[in-house]
């Protein structure tokens, strides 16, 4: 078969393309996507009260789809494109084939792969924010919040920290895979949005049991395993550093889970499954900014701290602080993401190993990327303190940006639609909002209407107190 005119055999595989790197990058991106869909969809739908299962899961699913359209429409270029200002890129589409098939930066993958990989990170950030708003946010308000926030908040932080032209990137901040851009940002934005949306219904706030803990663990498992791509994909190449990042991720997470579990047993007498899940999440978040730039023993120490400090802020400090108790943060994203993300950023500034940083950043400059611990060890304390200072400035920047932008967005949306559901909708939950319910199980304490077409009964079993409709319709259990 002859090739079309002007088309060469190697056009689909140009000399700069590394097929192994590209295959891994697409795989890693899909693993991160699976953390959201179905991972967090399942986790959110099962960790809430039964009447909020559909709404919670659908907030995650909607965000995933909406972010993608915004991302290819303008978001990617605002985060990684040509500089508009030192903290933001110029809006532009990322759909042109000439752009998508071209080389991404100086890497060995095409722009299409990079756009996809960065999209799943942007999407999961919005879904994490949703965790603070479950059980009361007006879905129409959420539909507006997602595109506005990814446009005017996420892009600013992503460009500043991850884009080579960003001001914090140039300063030498270390955020290996999103401890700042994703977790600290989502924790602060979620907490801020929760303040503006308002609390859940009083009964829901007093008692909000999971409707299916086993299913919750399935979602949590997808989240944990998906983190292999979350941290393993950020070198953008199949490298030894990627392997180290993956192992460090799982070591820190396991240590954090076990630490949280031991604290629950020690202080409350019972090994809490939900508590262990929270410990898992804080471990994943804490190691994210450091995954490939710290040694294994540092990952264990980070796991011990991520399993104890957020535990203290959530289980002790939260109950003592009027400010923290004032805001109804449904899934405690402030503690699991803002606190754990800040902790990870600070510990990265302390434990970052210069040789590993050079493997990741591929730069010979020893004035950047040296943890304070190694600054003391090598006598380069000034560089170590500088790195710690940059990490702290980054935390402050992310907090300020997200408090301001999230507040403005919420106030603007409130002028169009209410941020919070009305009282009747809060009482009814899914059925009032979507006209659908998650579970239709007999004997579950719920009443179900008979099908209009199946009102006649063909059989009544005297031995068992149940009725079987003629054509299989649902009826109420006696």
UniProtKB/TrEMBL annotation:
Q: Which GO terms describe its cellular component?
A: plasma membrane
Kindly list the GO molecular function terms attached to this UniProt entry. ammonium channel activity
Tell me the membrane topology, using the record's own terms: Multi-pass membrane protein
Question: Record keywords: Cell membrane included?
Answer: yes
Where in the cell does this protein reside? Cell membrane
Return the annotated region ranges for Disordered: 456-478
List the NCBIfam families.
amt (TIGR00836)
Q: What is this protein called?
A: Ammonium transporter
């Amino acid at each position: 078969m002859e090739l079309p005119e002007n088309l060469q055999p190697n056009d689909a595989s140009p000399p700069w393309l590394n097929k192994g790197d590209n295959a891994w990058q697409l795989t890693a991106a899909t693993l991160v996507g699976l953390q959201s869909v179905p991972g967090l969809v399942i986790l959110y739908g099962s960790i809430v009260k039964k009447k909020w299962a559909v709404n919670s899961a659908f907030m995650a699913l909607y965000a995933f789809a909406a972010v993608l359209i915004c991302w290819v429409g303008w978001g990617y270029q605002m985060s990684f494109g040509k500089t508009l200002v030192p903290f933001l890129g110029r809006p532009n589409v990322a759909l042109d084939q000439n752009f998508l098939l071209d080389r991404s930066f100086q890497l060995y993958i095409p722009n299409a792969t990079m756009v996809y990989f960065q999209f799943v990170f942007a999407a999961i950030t919005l879904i994490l924010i949703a965790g603070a708003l479950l059980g009361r946010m007006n879905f129409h308000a959420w539909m507006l919040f997602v595109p506005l926030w990814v446009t005017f908040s996420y892009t600013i932080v992503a460009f500043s920290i991850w884009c080579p032209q960003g001001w914090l990137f140039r300063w030498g901040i270390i955020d290996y895979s999103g401890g700042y851009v994703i977790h600290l940002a989502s924790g602060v934005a979620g907490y801020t949005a929760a303040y503006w949306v308002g609390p859940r219904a009083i009964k829901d706030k007093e008692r909000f049991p999971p409707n299916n803990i086993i299913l919750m663990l399935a979602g949590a498992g997808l989240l944990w395993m998906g983190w292999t791509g979350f941290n393993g994909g950020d070198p953008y190449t199949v490298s030894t550093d990627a392997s180290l990042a993956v192992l460090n991720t799982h070591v820190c997470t396991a240590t954090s889970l076990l630490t949280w579990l031991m604290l629950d047993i020690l202080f409350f007498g019972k090994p809490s499954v939900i508590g262990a899940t929270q410990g898992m999440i804080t471990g994943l978040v804490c190691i994210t900014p450091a995954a490939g730039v710290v040694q294994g023993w540092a990952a264990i120490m980070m796991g011990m701290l991520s399993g104890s400090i957020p535990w203290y802020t959530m289980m002790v400090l939260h109950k003592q602080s009027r400010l923290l108790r004032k805001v109804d943060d449904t899934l405690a994203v402030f503690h699991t993401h803002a606190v754990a993300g800040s902790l990870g950023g600070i510990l990265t500034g302390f434990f970052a190993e210069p040789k590993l940083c050079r493997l990741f950043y591929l730069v010979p400059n020893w004035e950047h990327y040296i943890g304070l611990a190694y600054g003391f060890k090598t006598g380069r304390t000034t560089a170590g303190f500088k790195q710690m200072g940059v990490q702290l400035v980054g935390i402050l920047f992310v907090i300020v940006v997200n408090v301001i932008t999230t507040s403005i967005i919420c106030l603007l949306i409130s002028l169009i639609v209410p941020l919070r559901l009305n009282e009747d909708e809060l009482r009814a939950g899914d059925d009032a909002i979507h006209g659908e319910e998650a579970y239709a199980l007999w004997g579950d304490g719920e009443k179900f209407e008979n099908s209009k077409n199946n009102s006649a009964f063909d059989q009544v079993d005297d031995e068992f107190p149940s009725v079987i409709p003629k054509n299989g319709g649902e009826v109420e259990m006696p």
